[in-house]
Structure formats: C-alpha cells, structure tokens
Write a structure and sequence with these properties.
Strand content: 25-35%
Largest sheet: 9 strands, mixed
Number of helices: 7
Radius of gyration: 22 Å
Order of helices and strands: EEEHHEEEEEEHEHEEEEEEHHEEH
Distance between the termini: 47 Å
Number of strands: 18
C-alpha cells in the first residue's frame, strides 16, 4: 500500500497550501516524485524549487527534494504565489453560445478548455471568457461567476450558465435534486455484454493517486459519495463500444470512474489508463491503427451531448443537443471501418 489517507487544501492571501499524511506500507520514495502524484499541474521543477526555498516540510521540518518519504510522515507544501483563481481576469475568448435569454445561457465547451481557474490554470478558462462577454454574473457557492455545474477540461459539450441570482438558485437546486437531464456519448474499451445497465458505486478520492477518483465498496463505502450512471449501447465496434451515459448524480470524473470500474475504461483516457491498448490483437498493424486513433483523438472520448432543465422563470422544460465533435466522430468512423473489415 502506498500514499495518502488525509488531504487538505486551502488558500490564504499569499500562498497555495497542500498537506498529506503518508499511509502505512509506503516504500521509500523521493519526495519530489511522491508529490507529483498528489499535486495537480505541479511539475517536478516546481516541487524542487519549493524544496530549495525551504517550503516543503516533513513533520514540521524543512526537507530537500531528495528526502525519502516514510510511513506516517506528515508533509506540508507551500507554493509561494498568490491564489490566482481569486484574481479573475476577463479575457476575449470566443464562446459557442447555443442559447441565451435574460436568465441563462447554454454554451458548447470545446475539449481542452478548463471551466474555471484553479491550480496551474489561471487564464484561458470558460469563466475568464464569460466575465468578458457578460457583466454582473452571479457567484455560485464557490464564488465562481455564472457556474451551475462543470465538465472536465478534455470533455467537450453542453453547460448551462446562470445570469441572475434567481436563475443560479433555481438551476443549482435542479442539479442537487437530480431533476436535470444530462447525457453523454462515450467510446470505451471492450465489448459491453449488456445492451444497457446501471452502475451504482460510491465515488471518492483514490487512496494511491489523488489525481484520480475510484469506487469504494463494502466496509470502505463511506470513503465515497453515492453515484449512479445509466448506460446504453449505441454501437458495437469490435474492441471498443460506443455508449450513451445518463447521469443521475454529478461526481467528479463520474463516467470515467464508473466505466473503468466495470472494466470498460474510456478510450484514450490517460488519467485512468485508457491511453494503452486494453483490448485487441498483438498484431503490429493493429497497434499502428490504435496509435493513429489516439492521434486523431488526443483526449478521452467523452462528450456532453444532451442537457435538459426547467427554465427558472417560464418553468418550461428545455432540452438541448450538441453534435459529436469532429475528433470523436473521426475516431468512431475509423473503428467502424476497422471492425467491418477486420475479418476480411
């Protein structure tokens, strides 16, 4: 067993802080390598610079980057820069607005765009764009203007943004009560046997890698939060399957974690191991084919295709659909062609 049982993150006016408790059974490992598994977007150079500045502590004693962590060590890290996510800067970034009225707007987020500023991503986010194009957006409970929900950086698709306090409260309540509708299209490794199914598994932080989440079961179930994903097979393409996933809850990385849990990791999902060949032959031509698919689609194959909710003023149920983006579609087409001719 390795790594952490306890994590806290907080910001004050000057520094970004991280704290970790190393679990029993941790093998000796340089602290700079260890921390790269737990601090998102922190390069080894950044960690080594913090150690050189005396900003990495083990059991309240500053250590160098070559210190080897041991079980039960209490590690604290202080990066000496302002919390830029609280210094929102309006940026003239184009937004694909699918719908807009006085209360809200629906946007189609491209893959590669971060939704809100955070560690290592302080500009170029959807929020930087929103505050440029729209004035006086209401803050959510995390002080993020207009944001009702979010999708991952490398996931494309639909998001609803609130333009008034009343819309923010109404829409947030729908997401909390699970009355909104969210459907995704995903390409996953393997041939899913069932035509449809439901995945129920509590999702929480992975005990070995804080950049991942995982499903907790049995005696560990309280380490996660309840999560439910409904899936249906759209098309079987040999070594991969195209599925529709409907979210009943909205946990971080939910579809990515749930599909991996049932043995069908998302295609080219690097964080969860989908960038490796998980199903298929050992032929060199097949490896070249998959590598070409990875080049066409250099991200996880996940798109937020459908979004439905009750309008906060008219109370009309509104439903929006977005086209599967070109990179995912091209990858699907290649697999479709491959599966059709694989036995020729």
């Amino acid at each position: 067993m390795t790594n952490i049982i306890d994590i806290t993150e907080q910001e004050d006016e000057l520094y970004e802080h991280h704290a970790f408790r190393v679990v029993k059974g941790q093998q000796p490992l340089r602290i700079d390598k260890y921390l790269m598994n737990f601090i998102e977007n922190a390069t080894r150079n950044k960690i080594q610079a913090a150690a050189k500045d005396g900003s990495i502590f083990v059991n309240d004693v500053p250590v160098k980057s070559n210190y080897k962590v041991k079980p039960n060590d209490y590690i604290t890290v202080k990066f000496e820069h302002p919390p830029h996510e609280n210094l929102l800067i309006a940026e003239d970034i184009p937004i694909d607005v699918v719908y807009e009225d006085d209360d809200l707007l629906v946007v189609n987020k491209p893959a590669g765009m971060v939704v809100h500023p955070g560690h290592g991503n302080y500009s170029g986010t959807l929020i930087n764009a929103l505050i440029f194009h729209f004035e006086n957006l209401p803050n959510n409970s995390s002080n993020r203007p207009g944001l009702v929900h979010r999708i991952d950086k490398d996931t494309s698709g639909l998001l609803v943004v609130a333009k008034t306090e009343q819309a923010m409260a109404h829409l947030s309540n729908q997401f909390a009560k699970k009355t909104s509708e969210r459907k995704y299209v995903a390409l996953v490794w393997g041939n899913i046997e069932e035509e449809e199914g439901t995945i129920e598994g509590h999702i929480g932080r992975h005990p070995k890698n804080r950049l991942q989440n995982t499903v907790y079961e049995g005696d560990d179930i309280d380490k996660g939060k309840p999560a439910v994903t409904h899936y249906k097979v759209i098309e079987r393409l040999g070594y991969v399957t195209l599925v529709s996933c409907k979210l009943e809850t909205g946990r971080t990385h939910q579809i990515r974690v749930h599909m991996k849990h049932i043995g069908h990791t998302l295609f080219n999902d690097e964080r969860y191991g989908g960038e490796r060949i998980l199903k298929g032959t050992t032929f060199t031509k097949y490896k070249q084919f998959v590598d070409n698919c990875f080049k066409i689609l250099p991200r996880q194959a996940l798109h937020a295709k459908t979004l439905g909710f009750e309008h906060p003023t008219t109370e009309e149920f509104m439903k929006f659909e977005s086209e599967v983006p070109e990179d995912i579609q091209q990858c699907i087409d290649k697999w479709r062609h491959y599966s059709k001719h694989a036995n020729d």
